[in-house]
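Subject: Sanity check before I submit

Could someone independently write out the C-alpha cells for this chain? I want to compare against mine line by line before I put it in a report. The sequence has 388 residues.
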Amino acid sequence: MLDESAQFESLLKHAPAPGEAPQALQADLHLAQQLRSLDLSDESRTRARLRAQLAGRMHHPAAAPAPGPRPAGRRALWLGALIAVLLVTLLGANTPARAAFQRFLGYGYLPYAGFIRLADVRILQGPVGPSAPGQAPGVLQGVAGGEQTTLWVSAGLDPADLSAAELLLPDGSRLPVRQVEAGADALRLVFAPLPGEVSTAELALPGGWRLPLAWIPADQAGLAPTQVSLPLASRTPSASDAAPCVDLAAQARLCATAAFVDAQGTHLLLQGLQAGQAAPIAWNPAAQHSAVYLEGTDGRIYPLAGFDEGPQDDPSLLALRFTSLPATLDVVRLYLPAQAVTWAGVPPAVDATLQLDLRLPARLPLRSPTPGAPAAPASPAAIPTPGP
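---
Independent answer below. Compare away.
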C-alpha cells in the first residue's frame, strides 16, 4: 500500500527537469501508463484518502503564480497545466487509462439514493430533520446531478400537497418540483439540476417550512468504500488486479463494479461490457428471482430481495439487492442465470448459470440514516417561517 501511495504521489508531483522543454503528449501518455499500472483492486482508507486528494485538485485547481521571473512559479504553472491536460485526456477519451481513472474514483452508496458515481454529483452535507418526531418534515437524503436534483423527505406528508414544493436558490430564483413519488419510508422529490456554483439552497414546503440545504461534491464526502475485488484464491497472474467479471458469448462480459452492505441488505452493482465497451443491460422480467442468490463462505444462501437505484444516465449498470450478510463475511459467490439479464433488450444465447466470486469492501459506519432504522434527530432543525 505504501508503494502505491508513493506511485500516486509521484504522478501528481511530476514536473520536467530544469531547462527541459515540455512535451505534453509524451508526458500525458507516460503518466497515463503509470496510472494504469497501479493496483486499484482493493479499496482501503489510504486509497480513499488519495481519491479525496485527487478530487480536491479537480475541484480546486492550483492558483496561478504571482507575476515575476521566479522559476518555482513557472514550474507550478506548468505542473497545473499538465495535470489539467492529463485529466482532460483521461476523462475525454475512451481509453484503458480513462477506465483506470474512473475505477479509482469509483462509486459511492447512499441510503434511499442507491449507487452514485462519485465524480459526477453533489450530495447533501447531512440530513436536515425535525428537532422532535412529528414537529416538522425532514430531508433524509439529496443528490444533485447534471440532469436533475433529487430529495428524499420524511414520509407522512400528503404527496398532493408537495406539488407546490420549491427549491429557493441564493440569487432569488426558484426551482419548482417536477415529480413527486411516494415510497414506504420517504417521499421522492425531483427538481431541475442545480447551477454549478450553488452550494446552498432552501426547500420550501407547505405550511411555511423552509429547510436549509448545504451541498458538497460526493467525492469529498468521505463515503464508505464500495469497490469489489477478486478473492485471493480466484486471482491469476494475468488478472491479479482485474475487477470480478464473467465472460459470455460474443465478447460480452458481466462485471461486479461496486457493493455495499447495510441493515437493508447487500447491494451489488453490475455492469455489462461488449468488446470492452459499456453495453446496455436490463433485468429480464421472465427471470426467476429464486435462481439468483449469493453464497457465502459460511455455506449459507442469501437470496435476491429486490432492486436498487443506480446512476440514471448509464444503462450499462444494474443494481441488485440481496439479504444482508453477517459482518464477518467478506467473500461471496454470485449465482446468476445468464438469461436473467438482457443485452440491448435481447437475452444472451448462453443457457447456463453464471458464477462470480468477489470480495466485498471494508464496512465503515454510514454517514446517513438507514431507511427503517432508528436514528437520532438530525440537525440543523427545520425552521418554520411565514409562507409567502
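---
OP: Matches mine. For the report I'm noting this point. Residues 71-92 form the longest helix (22 residues).
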